[in-house]
Design a protein that fits this description.
alpha+beta; 12 helices; 5-stranded antiparallel beta sheet; single chain
Length: 256
């Protein structure tokens, strides 16, 4: 892992991405604005501890914290292990437990790029009738939901759901600085379906999808590892779709 940009430049970029002034960040981090200015301009070389402290204050993702450390001349501190490695057994078991607990309601494990890592039995209801090519690994769940050969033709409130997905993706791309997410947002923005930015009538934007003769309505929730210090654990999440009404709950329970 190497960085062609100095650490001060990267820290300034993250500060600006968070829409903070040097005074704002210095107050938040308990560092003098003068020293912070020297760090950003390269007149002062931050210590390893200072890099991590500023990254914490800026809520920089773990992957990018490693990049900051390398740019400052230090070794990365956050490791990355595959889910199949022996040391990740507790993470795998936790994910399996959450997926099983949500059944018969659909739930998927996704990584930082929205690629599906795993799913429970309820996912088949959402993916029924989609083009098999969209289900070839790696399956991107956002592309699957908005693509005209995917779930989009069955989503009854497509313009509303599409506006919600694109807004969420744009925000993630902006806050993370992830070029892959920005590229995915550009790709999905070109798909048909319209946009309905009006706020929902209820408490959240539902996913309303046709399933046979029924229209099912779901609210989505997200579960993450709150104290992860491994990149893989920090970058996976469980997206679950819970019934927004009793009719949806009854249909899914009866289909078990």
């Amino acid at each position: 892992m190497t960085s062609s940009l100095p650490v001060g430049h990267l820290l300034r970029t993250w500060r600006q991405r968070r829409r903070l002034s040097q005074l704002d960040l210095s107050s938040e981090a308990g560092v003098s604005a003068r020293h912070l200015s020297f760090v950003e301009t390269g007149r002062a070389r931050p210590s390893r501890e200072m890099v991590l402290h500023l990254a914490e204050s800026l809520e920089v993702p773990l992957r990018a914290r490693n990049e900051l450390l390398v740019a400052a001349g230090f070794a990365p501190v956050y490791g990355r292990r595959g889910l199949e490695e022996p040391g990740m057994g507790a993470v795998r078991r936790a994910l399996d437990l959450v997926l099983a607990a949500y059944e018969p309601f659909p739930a998927v494990v996704v990584d930082r790029s929205w690629a599906m890592v795993a799913g429970n039995g309820g996912v088949a209801l959402l993916t029924a009738g989609v083009d098999p090519r969209l289900l070839e690994p790696p399956v991107n769940v956002l592309r699957l939901s908005l693509h005209p050969d995917g779930m989009a033709p069955r989503i009854r409130n497509l313009a509303q759901w599409r506006a919600h997905v694109l807004h969420r993706l744009a925000r993630e791309a902006r806050l993370s600085g992830d070029a892959g997410l920005a590229a995915l947002h550009r790709e999905l923005s070109l798909l048909p379906g319209g946009l309905d930015p009006r706020p929902p009538d209820g408490i959240a934007v539902p996913l309303r999808i046709r399933a046979g003769d029924d229209e099912l309505s779901f609210l989505s929730t997200v579960t993450t590892f709150g104290t992860a210090v491994d990149l893989t654990a920090a970058e996976v999440s469980v997206e679950a779709f819970l019934p927004a009404d009793e009719r949806t709950a009854d249909v899914l329970r009866s289909a078990r």
